Amino acid sequence: MVKRPGEALKEFAKAKLDLDRRIIEFNYSKADEFITWLIGFAIGAISLIVSNLELIHKNVPGIIKPTVLLFAITIFFGLAYRYSSFLFVIKFKKLESYFEGVFSEHNMTPIEYDPDYDNASFEVILFALAYDFNRAPTFPADLSEEIKKVELPKLKKYYKELCERSKKEYEIENEYWAEVDETAFKLNKQKSIDKLMNPSQNFNIGFNLRRWALITDLLYLLSLLFFVSTVIVISIRLLHSPF
User: Fold this and answer.
1) Each residue's pLDDT tens digit in the chain (243 positions)?
2) Where are the beta strands (DSSP E) in the chain?
3) What is the count of structural domains for the chain?
4) C-beta separation of 35 from 81 below 8 A
């Protein structure tokens, strides 16, 4: 079945978002497992070194300080990666509720009258009544221009009244849910109402995806780099050791 451009793009965007979410979750889980192993290995290695300081110093002199330092840096960047990637996933998860609203099939009636409708034609305001409120009056198909001019102000007034009624219902529902939040979560009722009435001004929606991806990738790379550096340092010192 052929779909309208808006519907097709909406489905494509929804599918892409779901794919991105699954890719991010998969990458996070696998990378987190590896970094956790690196951190555990580094901590275990430091513990082993500390418990055998004299033996290591005697057989491989000069290896303790650089090894412990590099392992400590590996642990630091590993923990930093885990924390930043955790925040990255949390921020992405928070967007799911936003996108659920974007892709939702449930549309709300307008709560504000658009001033552009002051200059709207008879056909436009009639379509707006049908589309926004499903309350378009029926007229004969051969309505004359004179009658349209007479009926147009009435339709605009009717549309504005419906917007005001819709806003009133919206305010009542917001107050009810604000009371629910106040009872359940001890949130300030007025602040909840203000957020619901002005979502664009109160909710911090979105984050810089590329910046956060760059940060997590860099921390992951640094963790791996210092771990490999530690292995190289240990290998070189062992090759030059007396035994």
Assistant:
1) 566 666 677 777 777 778 877 888 888 889 999 999 999 999 999 999 999 988 888 888 888 999 999 999 999 999 999 999 999 888 888 777 777 766 666 677 888 888 888 899 988 998 889 888 888 788 777 778 888 888 899 999 999 999 999 989 988 888 888 888 888 888 787 777 777 666 555 456 677 888 988 999 999 999 999 999 999 998 988 887 765
2) none
3) 1
4) yes
Nearest to 68 by CA among 54, 47, 40: 47
211: number of CA atoms within 13 Å, CB side? 5
**Cβ atoms of residues 152 and 122 within 8 Å:** yes
Domain that holds residue 160: 5-240
Helix axes 5-51, 64-102, angle to 10 degrees: 160
Asked if 78 and 38 count as a contact pair (C-beta separation under 8 A), the reply is yes
Contacts of 14 (CB under 8 A, 6+ apart): 99, 103
Look at residues 181, 237, 217 and name the one whose alpha carbon lies nearest to residue 68.
237
Residues 103-113 as b or e (16 or more Cβ within 10 Å = b): eeeeeeebeeb
Dihedral angle, C-alpha 130, 132, 135, 136, nearest 10 °: -30
CB under 8 A, 24+ apart: contacts of 194-201:
197/171
